[in-house]
Amino acid sequence: MLLKAAKQPRHRIHWVAMMKKTFSGFFLVAMAAAAVTLAAQTTPQTTTTPAHRTTATTATHRSAGGCVTPAPALSPKIPALPASAPCVKTLYTVTRIPTTKLDYGSPLLSPEVREELGGGPATYSLDYVDTQVGTGEVAKAGKWLTVRYTGYLVDGKKFDSSYDHPGGEPISFPYGMHQVIPGWDTGFEGMHIGGKRRLFIPYELAYGEQGRQNVIPPKSMLIFDVELVAQSDTRPTPPAPARPSMPGRPGVPPAGTPPAAKTPPPGGATPPAGSTPPSAPPQGSSSTTKPQR
Questions:
Q1: How many domains does the chain have?
Q2: Model pTM?
Q3: Best label site of 14, 90, 172, 174, fewest CB within 10 Å?
Q4: Where in the sequence is the domain holding 154, given as residue range(s)?
Q5: In this structure, what DSSP letter does residue 37 have?
Q6: Percent of the chain, pLDDT > 90?
Q7: In the beta sheet, which residues pair with residue 84?
């Protein structure tokens, strides 16, 4: 005779069913979470970045020989380089990365404000061409450089020149000491005394976005023709200015002028007051003596 299976208590059956349901629920939740994580890892993320204008760059491309291509386009008003001059080369290239980032900008913001709040990186270069290689010592930071120069805008306008200064004297400045625009503070690298160079200075290394009132427009690239005349450890003594002649008083000759010779008054003129008039010849006599026979 087969024995009948003992009946399980009803409360134990309910507990086992509940455990099965709970385990199934946990399993489904875990599977769903894993599926979401996998989808997040495999689905490409799309992020929205705030719109801004990237600062216009003045960086140049260099060929294998180091020449800038294409060469900077200049106005024909700027003197042409000598036919023997080498190609334009890059002294250095800089990329500046902004320290601030615009996380959100309302559609009401203008492009100018967006750029000011968080513009993109800017890349620019300082280009040059040596039109004459000097034979003296090389320019050194901390020395006083004496330079002749002429500065042009890209449109050919000459805005400054040492040749137009009184006496056509060159200027002197401490090189690398931040007393001039950055393009000048670094643009004489490798240049020897007696050399001549043309510098193509981007506005980031010149007068910036503001320019110079009534002289240089905002964001202006500058072209300088420079000549390194000399360098010294101390500031050169400026030449003594020529002493201007002092205007004399009316009727009074300048000091050192020899006195003018006295001219007798013309015949019939009234003698000056206080002078003795010449005596008149006696009547009946002649003013001339007749020669004796």
A1: 1
A2: 0.62
A3: 14
A4: 61-232
A5: H
A6: 45
A7: none
